[in-house]
Specification:
Elements: H1 16-41, H2 45-72, H3 83-109, H4 119-140, H5 143-148, H6 154-186, H7 193-225
Helix pairs in contact: 1-2, 1-3, 1-4, 2-3, 3-7, 4-6, 4-7, 6-7
Amino acid sequence: MAGTNPFASLFGRSPFKPLQEHMRVVRKCAAQVTKIFEALCDDDQEKVGKIKDRIFDLENEADAIKNELRAHLPKSLFMPVDRRDLLEVLDLQDNIADTAQDIAGLLVERKMEVAEGMHQPLLNMVRRCVDACDQAAHIIERLDELVETGFRGPESDAVIEMVEQLNKIESDTDQMGLELSRSLFAHEDDMKPVSVVFWYDLIIMIGELADYAEKVGNRLRLLLAR
């Protein structure tokens, strides 16, 4: 690790600690999305309900951290990044948890049946979208090192590479979303029209997990470019 930036001590209590804590909870929330779809594919509605409750609990925990950070975020001129930028990253992280909650809520409010041919492409897409959330979480964990190195040098280069990997993961999810939609439409004659509509909306929501994760990474890349 590069030498410590002497100005880092001027920033006071780092706002990145609660931001990182928030992202860790968000990551747990996203991880449950994989589990809830595995339960759905197994037609285990009781388990779907239990995982939904877990997702809602985690989303509430993330909200509590978010509200605490907003209320106590330093306004000092010695903040290592602009306050507005940090709040934007926080909101993008929170959108991941909100989307996970929306997905879980829909799966409980309406019994969604998975056509046999959709199982594998569905799980492939969900897992890859959660991969994107994991990668965004890894990037957020590097914020302390970025501050210590003045947001430049090898540590900055490493984070930019991680963002590029995140972009690649998100591109994978776009392709998987198209494949899953094709699988859905291939089975639409065997499904109720309203079920097709709900599934199409659900595919979009799943993809939004990766979209928001990518936005987290891209927002940090913009900070590094300043």
